[in-house]
Amino acid sequence: MPSPRLGLPNLGLGVGLRSIHFPHILEHNPEVDWFEIISENYMDSGGRPRYVLDQIAERYPIVMHGVSLSIGSTDPLNFEYLSKLKRLAAAVNPLWVSDHLCWTGVQSLNAHDLLPIPLNEQTLSHVVSRVRQVQDFLERPLVLENPSSYVTFAGSTMSEWEFLSRMAEQTGCGLLLDVNNVYVSSINHDFDPFEYVRSVPHERIVQIHLAGHSNCRTHLIDTHDNHVIDPVWELYRLAHQFTGGVSTLLEWDARIPAFPVVHAEVLKAKQYMAAELSPPSASAADESVAPSAGGAAEYVDSGSSVPHPLAYVPMEVE
Predict the structure, then answer these.
(1) DSSP strand pairing (34-38 vs 297-298)
(2) pLDDT tens for residues 184-240?
(3) Distance CA 121, CA 118 (A)
(4) Which of 169, 200, 214, 266 could link 297 by a cystine bridge, Cβ 3.0 to 4.6 Å?
(5) Cα angle vertex 204, ends 163, 66, to 5°?
(6) Residue 90 three-state SS
C-alpha cells in the first residue's frame, strides 16, 4: 500500500455529520470510523451544535469540509473567513481541511453555489497562487475536491484531471476525489470517467467522496439525495485499486434517511475494496439512457420537479 498521503492516515469509512442524526449518534455511538463536518455550519455557531460536535469529536476522528473558500474567484481571498476557519480547526482538531476547486462569488456577492472555472494556464496560475496563500495562512496542507459541473468553457485548454494534477504538483496540496462528481461530469460533458480516475495523481488523493445523484435524462445533477449507483461504485473500485485505499466518505444531504441507512450505504464500499477490478463497462456511458436501474433518482418532468444542484449545503445552524 502506498504511504499515507501528506502523512495523513486512512481513516476508513465515514459519513457526513448532519444535525438530523445528532440524537441517534449520541444515544447509540454507532461504529462509524469517522465523520466529516461542513465547516460553515460551525464557524459562527456556539450553543448546542458546538456542544454536540465537541462530544462527537471526543469519540470519532473529524475532518472539516468547506463550501465557501472560493479558491477560483477573482475576488481577493477572504481572510476574515480564513481566520474563522483557522479558529474552528484549532478548536475541533480535524485530521485535515478541505474545500472545492471552484468559485462561489464575485465582488463580495455569494452565489451559494460551487461554480466551475475555465481550465487553462491563466486560471491554473491564479489558483496555484491562492492555494499557496491559503496553506501558508492555515499552516497546513489544503485538500481540494473536484466539483461536478454542467457547463464547459470555450477558454479551457486542458482536462480537469490535468489541471488537478498540475495544481497538486505545484502547491503540494492534497486531493479529494469525488467519484460521483467524476461520473456526473463525465455524462454531462461526454468524457471517459475511467480515464479521469486513471489520470489523477493517486499519491495525492487523501480522501474519496461517494454520493447519489439525480438523472434528468439529458444530464445528471449532483443532488446527494439517493443511493450510490453501480457505475459510481465501479469508479470507486478503480480508485481504490490505484490509491491502495484512502479515507472514504458518503455524503447524503437531501431527503436524508435514518442514520443506519446512511451508514449501511458507505459500508457497501467493503465489497468493492475486496473484489477484483473488472474492465470498464459500457454501463457508465449508458446510464443516461437507462437511469433507474442503478438507483439514481430520476426526474423525467423538466418542469417544477427538476432539482437544483447540491453545490451549496445550507446552514444548519442559526
Answers:
(1) unpaired
(2) 999 999 999 999 999 999 999 999 999 999 999 999 999 999 999 999 999 999 999
(3) 9
(4) 214
(5) 75
(6) helix
